[in-house]
Amino acid sequence: MRFWRKHQTHVRISERTFDLLCLTTAFVLAVHADHLPIWLTGSLFVALGLRWWQRRYRPGRVPAWLKVPMLVFLVSAVVLEYGNLFGREPGSALAAGLLVLKLTESEAPRDARVAAAFACFLLMAALLFGQSMVATAVVALGLLPALTTWRSLEPTQTSPSLPRQLVPAFGLLAASLPLALTAFVLVPRLSTPLWGTSNEQTAKTGLSDHMSPSDFTELLTDDSAAMRVSFDGPPPDQGQRYFRAFVMWDYDGKDWKRIDRPPTTTIPVEAGATINYRISLEPTHQHVLPTLDVPLRAPADSQTRADGEVFADKPVDEVREYELSSAVRYRFEANLDITTRIHALQLPTGFDPRTHALAAQWRQLYGRDNAAIVRAALNMFHNEGFSYTLLPAPLGRDAIDDFLFNTREGFCEHYASAFTVLMRAAGVPARVVTGFQGGFWNKLGEYLLVRNADAHAWSEVWLEGRGWVRVDPTAAVRPQRISMGAASAAAGQLPWYKSGTLQSLRNQWDIVNRWWNQSVVGFDALRQRGLLTPFGVRDVDTGMLVKLLVISVAVFGAAGLFWALWRRPEGDPALAAMRSLERKLAHAGVARRRSEGPQHFLRRACRALPGQRAELDHLMRCYIELRYATLEPTHESLRTFRQAVRNFQPRRVV
């Protein structure tokens, strides 16, 4: 054992093995690049490239006086960026840096094996940030260079081209899939993720509980799915597909913010027409549950607010499915108490004097007719040169004045904010609502796909006898945003939306993503317990799962052992080719004797087959040279010999 360790320490890995190790590390860095700081990812790629160049053109060990400062710099940089070393993001950043630093001392086979194993761990850690089908497939592909690195360390391995080296790794990966699937199904599930809750500050989310100019810019260009909605019947019309999330009450001249109102068991709404539906919400790491406007009740494990907001008891850290009912025609809070009315009319002092002056003119012109004031504002947006754009001009201190009288361009957030301020300035109670509007109806899957790009902001005004009424000022500027969805509103500005074919393929592909979320990501402990229900077993406990797992592993192990013994692969490629040649000659009537060496055997074959003497003489000389004249034959010479054996077709001895 001591001799083996000493041998492993002094043996230097080949250039091909080191290249494969660098490829593995580069793949790991690429997988984690999405959630690591750009400067750190770039620095690690540069360090990896320099290490590869140094080993190839300036061979030798990296001195310790250089490695220690690099380690100190890495730890300090991670602490400065994240504030600590604990958590998903800082832990991944530190581990990625340590993997690159490990390559500075990866000269012996043992170090290469450790580095490849650590790379596999980091690949698995990438699933903590996303478990979509594409992300899982990318992580699985990342195992290929790691497996190839391990195979290249075997002493009997030759050095073929990189594509040929990857082929056995594909085979190993494919052979492991049945066992991986069995483990996925039978390993007992935990009620919560092993790594704990996610970091909300860095979590990707669709909506925020506050709204300020240009908050929606990134959201409106985010094509990822936000939720999927299926209905107990036909879906609502495009103009009724408003999904409420946050209700904004407080405005300080720049930002809109929601207020934390106490939970209520009933929402003050009189429903005229209702609809039942189910929502599959992607992780947002927030408590809010979007609902079709207006919800009648809260789903399980959640609470409602009087303004129609619904909040889950726990953050949505994984795909959440919930059922509820909503009113698509309604009268919402027909009676407005004095406290709510005052809150719905508040505006900060000292802001937007021209807006207040315009609202005062409308109040004087239309008197107590609040509905006429609403129509006047919508007519202004429709007739006075306002435009919809995702790249609006910046606004100054008096943001609403700048927007209404100068720039006159923006998207839903600008129009909802300006309209609500105008209404409050004119004495009409109003508030801002954010959520989603529209979506793509997938006929094949029979569900409504709502993407983050469908995020929307609109207004609600309170009118006597009608209660809170939804008013969407964006529709007055660009009606296509409501009738045709976000894709139409963004046409000409987002290249992705220019191709109808790409849109159709993208939306149809979501059926696969939905299946993945339901069958794989959503495979929880409850579904696992009902695994054997089709076979008459109603509830599977942990003990039975463990027994099934042990039996499955034993079956797979026995099958693998039988396969290995049945194949009995030759460890020597030249010898394997020689065995193939012997079988061909035996079939032709020239069998090798037990006491006969390869040279004597092939000479006898030459005498028995005089018409193929030249071919057999060439094969004999090639084999003797490969077996006895060289210490380690090249891959090209082995391939040439194997090809010559395959091409040789002996004629039967008469």
- Separation, N- and C-terminal Cα atoms: 57 Å
Strand order of the largest sheet: 11-7-2-16-15
Q: Work out the number of β strands.
A: 18
Gyration radius (Cα, Å) is 35 Å
Task: Give the helix level as a range of percent.
Answer: 40-55%
Helix/strand/pairing category: alpha+beta
What is the number of helices?
A: 24
| Percent of sequence in beta strands | 5-15%
- How would you sum up the major sheet? 5 strands, antiparallel
State mean pLDDT (0 to 100 scale).
83
- Spans of at least 5 consecutive residues with low confidence: 1-9, 192-205
What overall geometry do the principal axes of the alpha carbons give?
elongated
Describe the structure using short key phrases.
654 residues, 5-stranded antiparallel beta sheet, disordered N terminus
How is this structure best described in words?
By secondary structure, the protein is an alpha+beta fold. Helix content is 50%, strand content 14%. The protein has 24 helices and 18 strands. A 5-stranded antiparallel sheet has the order 11-7-2-16-15, covered by helices on one side. Strands 8-3-14-17-18 form a 5-stranded antiparallel sheet. Strands 1-5-4 form a 3-stranded antiparallel sheet, with no helix packed on it. Helix 5 packs antiparallel against helix 6, helix 7 crosses helix 8 and helix 11 packs across helix 14.
